[in-house]
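Suppose you are handed only these lines of text.
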Amino acid sequence: MAKEKVVLAYSGGLDTSVAIQWLIENKNLDVIALAIDVGQERQDLEMVREKALQIGAIESIVKDVREEYVEDFLAKALKANSMYENKYPLLSAMSRPIIVKHLVEEAHRHGAKYIAHGCTGKGNDQVRFEVGIAALDPDLIVLAPVREWDLCTRELEMEYATAHGIPVPTTKASPYSIDDNLWGRAIECGVLEDPWIEPPADIYTMTNDARSSACDIPEYIELGFEAGLPVSLNGERKSFHDIIVDLNLFAGRHGFGRIDMIENRLVGLKSREVYEVPGALTLIQAHKALEDLCLERSVLHYKLGIEQTWADLVYNGLWFSPLKEALDGFIDSTQKLVTGDVRLRFFKGSCVAVGRRSDYSLYDYDLATYDAADSFDHKAAKGFIDLWGLPTKVWARQRRKVGKEGEV
Ligand code: ARG
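From them, the structure of the protein bound to arginine can be written out as follows.
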């Protein structure tokens, strides 16, 4: 009888390589390895593909989904100015849903009943995989070998790998856990687990130290937006994808985009996280600067709350959920006229929006100015304040009368 199939989210690293063998041996499954290119630091994906076959996968697929990642996923993140806990632009949380989408697609194409991932039992990513898969096909069964097996130390895992002829890394293992894609890079573990210790200089690969000489000269860029998305850099029309790649290099060279934070994971613990997000942060900052000009006040204020809920949902693995979809609808309708240019200055690790303009700007010079062109009706302010402040006056008088001045 033919064996059942499992589609494994494969990275080419030790965990998921051992997982191939483990799934064959312990679950008696045919393994289809799927590696997804979301713009992670270039690794030879053809080698990754072959490695899975060598270990025993019956099929090994590499999919370059960068374009789709940018157009269907990061576009939504930018429109939502996505920031979990007002700090973290969700880079890992963003890549999981697109990986999930392709895992499910491949499972259907191959008639596989199972999907497997290499996440541990302590992080957010396992939740994002499993809840995402359930949303797209609640009948698929998820296997999490790393959570299940008893190869709990790296030594045991290496021993198991060697015993089964699985290639093991020859260089000393990095003490850090790294996850990266076009939207940035996450660094965890090692000395970073002590929140009092300053991150060592050598953990960074996308950003310069702001004290380096590369950051000594201020440089300006101009970003053009149409309907909430970037369309040009310094006057040259470019794809959103290319703008992200260019900004990662440019802002990274200026030492902009490092984040060192304590983060609240969904599974209940706090963790120390370091991120490099030069392109993402630049774009979110520029996008916000343009929204300040183009969005009507109550829409802008309301959207701030929506953005926070959106980020919580995505962080917590609910990318594929009715609420997230509904919020996307709201956000999209706010973006139709977020069109214009933003000028940014980079200097010594900082990025500041120093200019913004738009044909749809709601900024009215004649209303705002203090010079002769002023068209604001100063006298109307008096009546406005009388009515706006009326409840306050009523309250203050009543409390005074009963001898409870100032009490709520
Ligand atoms: N804490 C971040 C998140 O939950 C980053 C996770 C990075 N994953 C990793 N395997 N290093 O989104």
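What can we learn from it? The longest strand covers residues 30-37. The longest helix spans residues 91-110.
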